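Exercise 7b. Backbone tokens:
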């Protein structure tokens, strides 16, 4: 019996092929639009989360005041005996590497001109081994642990301001942990670009030993823990926090302010877009069903006179909406998958975001649950629109339905 009603629904949708084709096409385009926009958002979230975790580490360990308070002097809230702590953290089998960082600010000078710098001391060999090419080196080479003299890498904008190039000699000036002013001559090893001009005008990278010597300390600002997989973050955070209660343990998400802002913005934009597309599909299906029901009012009256129940007619018309929505949803999903695969085969770069100089590849993520949810939602909307329009006609008096012209 159910198959018979479904067969009637399919045959009824084929009565006016052009109208049914337009309705299914709108549902298909709406489905494809939602899936492509959702896939783009998911790929953006994934890329930003990986970038944030690669920048800071999946887990960041430091003294509580390092996260909560400003420092009066460099490394006032830094970690003591970081090597011992690092060794204990590396004992965890899920930890790939633990990278120390020394963050400080000061001045950098070429002798004629001085400008403000934001500097970071790193363990170069481990840093580049774990993170890979996280900087775009535009001139010279990356830092190494075997340098015979203090070396730095400069952002492109900063190098241009100081007229520096690989091999140039510069001077770093910063306050020590005792509050005194210290200076150190360094050689430029290379230039890099982060893709953000404002950052390139201030950023300086040097090795841990140079940074600690300049600041006259053995402390580090924090330790970044890199795990085997992103999914291990929460469990690893709990283990580290339990093992070191005197320290504060944050995840990459706690410090990923840009990621949070972009995700909140995209959720609102694509949520509104999905709502608009859903309303358009409802209006189109409603219009198509209104026309179909008006044309078949006398037929509905005849079926009622023959003993067909209103609920049966309502179910049949709802099945028609389901057929239109189902065909459209499947076609839309196929179109979305085709575009997704095409972008993998033929790469396409997006223009640079505001405030950046480098674009990024357009990638659409395929997510099974998103596809299923979107397709089912589209079918539900078309069924809802069909039954809402049909409810009045199937319940009208049989005499009025038969007399309809």
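Sequence design result:
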């Amino acid at each position: 019996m159910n198959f018979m009603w479904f067969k009637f629904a399919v045959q009824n949708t084929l009565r006016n092929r052009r109208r049914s084709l337009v309705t299914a096409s709108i549902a298909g385009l709406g489905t494809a639009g939602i899936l492509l926009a959702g896939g783009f958002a998911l790929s953006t979230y994934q890329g930003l989360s990986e970038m944030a975790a690669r920048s800071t580490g999946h887990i960041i360990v430091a003294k509580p005041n390092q996260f909560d308070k400003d420092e009066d002097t460099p490394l006032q809230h830094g970690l003591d005996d970081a090597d011992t702590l690092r060794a204990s953290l590396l004992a965890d089998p899920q930890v790939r590497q633990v990278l120390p960082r020394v963050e400080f600010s000061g001045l950098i000078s070429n002798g004629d001109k001085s400008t403000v710098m934001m500097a970071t001391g790193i363990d170069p060999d481990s840093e580049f081994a774990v993170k890979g090419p996280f900087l775009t080196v535009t001139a010279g080479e990356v830092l190494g642990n075997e340098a015979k003299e203090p070396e730095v890498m400069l952002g492109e904008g900063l190098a241009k301001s100081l007229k520096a190039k690989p091999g140039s000699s510069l001077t770093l000036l910063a306050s020590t942990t005792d509050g005194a002013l210290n200076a150190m001559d360094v050689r430029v090893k290379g230039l890099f670009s982060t893709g953000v001009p404002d950052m390139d005008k201030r950023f300086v990278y040097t090795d841990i030993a140079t940074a600690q010597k300049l600041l006259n300390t053995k402390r580090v600002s924090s330790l970044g823990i890199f795990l085997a997989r992103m999914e291990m973050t929460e469990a690893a955070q709990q283990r580290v926090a339990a093992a070191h209660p005197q320290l504060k343990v944050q995840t990459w998400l706690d410090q990923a302010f840009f990621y949070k802002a972009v995700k909140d913005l995209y959720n609102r934009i694509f949520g509104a877009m999905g709502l608009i597309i859903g309303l358009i599909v409802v209006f189109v299906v409603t219009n198509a069903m209104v026309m179909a029901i008006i044309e078949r009012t006398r037929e509905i009256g005849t079926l009622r006179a023959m003993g067909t129940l209103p609920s049966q007619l309502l179910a049949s018309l709802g099945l028609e909406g389901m057929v239109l929505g189902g065909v459209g949803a499947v076609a839309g999903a196929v179109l979305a998958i085709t575009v997704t695969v095409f972008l993998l085969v033929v790469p396409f770069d997006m223009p640079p975001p505001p405030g950046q100089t480098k674009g990024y590849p357009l990638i659409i993520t395929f997510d099974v649950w998103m596809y299923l949810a979107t397709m089912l939602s589209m079918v539900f909307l078309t069924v809802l629109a069909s039954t809402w329009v049909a409810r009045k006609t199937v319940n009208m008096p049989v005499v009025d339905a038969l007399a309809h012209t």
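Instructor comment: Residues 17-56 form the longest helix (40 residues). The first strand starts at residue 59 and ends at 62.
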